[in-house]
Fold:
Amino acid sequence: MCLSIPARIIRIDLPFAVVTAGGNEFRVGVHLLSKPEADEYVLVHAGFAIQKIDQAEAEQTLDLIREMGINLAKDKEYDENH
Amino acid sequence: MDDKIRIGHGSGGSMMQTLIREVFIPAIGNPYLEAGGDAALLPFPEGALAFTTDTFVVNPLFFPGGDIGKLAVCGTLNDLAVVGAKPLYMSAAFLLEEGLDIRVLKMILASMAGEAEAAGVPVVAADTKVVEKAKADKVFIQMSGIGQVSSDKRHLSSMEKLVPGDVLIVNGSIGEHSVAVLAAREDTPLLCPAYSDCANLTGLIEEVWPFMSGIHAMRDLTRGGLATVCCEMASLRRLGIKLREEEIPVLPVTESFCELFGYEPYYLANEGKVILAVEKTMAQDVLKIWRAHPLGKQAAIIGEITDLSPDEVILHTRIGGKRRLIPLPGEQLPRIC
Amino acid sequence: MKIIDQFRHKELAASLVRQIHQEAKGDYTFMEVCGGHTMAIQQFGIPSLLPPGIRLLSGPGCPVCVTARNYVDEAILLAERTGVLLATYGDLLRVPGSKGSLEQSRAEGALVRVIYSPLDVLKLARENPHLQVIFLAIGFETTAPGNGIALMEAQNQGLKNFFMLSAQKVMPPAMQAVVQEGSGVQGFICPGHVSTITGSGIFEFLPRDYGIACVISGFEPVDLLLSILLLIRQINHSQPRIEVQYARAVKPEGNLKAQAVIDRAFDLTPSWWRGFGTISDSGLAPKPSLADWDAQRVFDIQFQEKEDEGLCRCADILRGSAKPFECPLFGLDCTPANPIGACMVSPEGACAASYKYQNYGR
Structure:
């Protein structure tokens, strides 16, 4: 259970923050986060930010797939993002 | 004149005459309407008569990209255009709630007038009634439209020529109308840059008349969205439909909005989108023509008619999986799960 | 966030599918216990990509599916009182009680509003001081902290017309019940967003006491496929443990602040689950200190939960001991257009999801 989407914090207005996702902007409660900051990415569920998204961890998960010896198909898109 | 609609404005007396004279006629007036009879007398068109009717209800009345008036006129013209008709005349009946600000009515009528004039299709008959406060939600518009269908286009509405191998083309990205309307509602706490795609598609559709022999079906993607229309096509003709998720244009704002509320773009209403089923050999030409038109810049081939899995609409997902799209029983609801 | 797009990447997904086909030897039975996972698996068409030996079951992870009809009945009775406004998540609107749904009550004149956030309910209460606003709080650990904030805000603001009727539940006891029922589940795709709140420790008992493989999964295609691969590996090497695939959102300790909110606002209570009956310490109810905002206390509601009568097999399906197509009503009397059981009403219920990917899943 858990429809949550990633969104980027635009500005803080405690205990709320304005976030954006795909061009949509809305206000969420940040009561559940310790030190929310602008530009951070958070998971939003039912009007609240419930956790921050850790970019480094995301990279590591993708690295895991590489380490498994799975060859990433030659992919221009992936290279262009890095 | 009063600034608000009163019960008297619908009673047939002098208040109503004043409303008609000072509000309706300046906006949507034309010789037929101004003749003032109980019915308009119109020349009978040759070929087949196309006749459509629809009631328009939208909350909120004004949304990015349009309003109930534009919706009503475009919706009526589009219903005629997709059966191959040249739209000729429209009628409009207004149900107004007591207390409605007359300026709102004027804005709606101006919008309707703009679309009707641009299309060259007059509103030849009109009516207005007023109900007590709370018995209607501000404005409901009931419209009918008449058009002329030449014999070479008669196969469109029955889809009798639809065959496996036919290619499916849509004229652009899906879901924006619903997103714009939902986002514009007071209780949606969202700033959303989506615009309704509400538009009169007659011109876009006329561009492909030269390919009429190869166009086997044409539907507009209104209530229920792409998925519902495809399900209807598959079911009516007992054929299968294969859709490719990667090819279906969806704007990032729509995708995001859907993810937020648990909607799927395939089921959202559009007011400026049409789907064509065209013979494979003509598909690229049709696509090219549409992409050169302002309302078809994002046109895309999104799938095809098949003889596998008849009655079923199968979506081939972005990651190479398959799932079936089925008709939804009712409106999508936002969910937290 | 560009990197998140990578988790939908076609080529990465294809590599994982190939790897799954290579490493899967024999039969596996995995269960996901999160409505979001049920939907995602179906939307991406994942079952159509897996080797035939992998059985994917949907467990009791849909809060609507596991909630008793009686909860809806009691909510409808409240709605029928004058001066009451029910605030509900969209998920609950069409769920059938014994005699009808909230949607039907609304059609008959009851004040029922669909909200997206518990904060909306506070607003409704402030804006309608003459109405008693009752919030139908369903959900699991992902939603409980937000519900808790709203409850405590109601107390802070001294709102006299905000009430919460809780049907909130927590996952681990139900997962234990699934295993104890002997459903044959070898591995869990553990709920990703529940885990962002609770952390990974709550699932420790599953590999430790029952030898069940566990992977906490994200919701994108690459997340789910990688999680399935990791489960296969745990089983192939007989090394059941907790793995956090969804590391970008799940810390081992979870969200401590959110956990503190749950601790301050709610007590663990016994709770009734469709398919399992009453499970101790599986529900969350407002603490006695918040009794004035607890609708169950204020309106003196005694829930009479029981399994549905008739041929509906939702209970078996939620336990993992039957698949949707094994229910005599599935696809015939019970369809998304005319749902009979909760598993079909909810778009993320096992039956609704199964109906949609029919021949393309298992």
The two ends of chain B are 52 Å apart (CA to CA). Residues 7-151 of chain B form a domain with the 60s Ribosomal Protein L30; Chain: A; fold (CATH 3.30.1330.10).
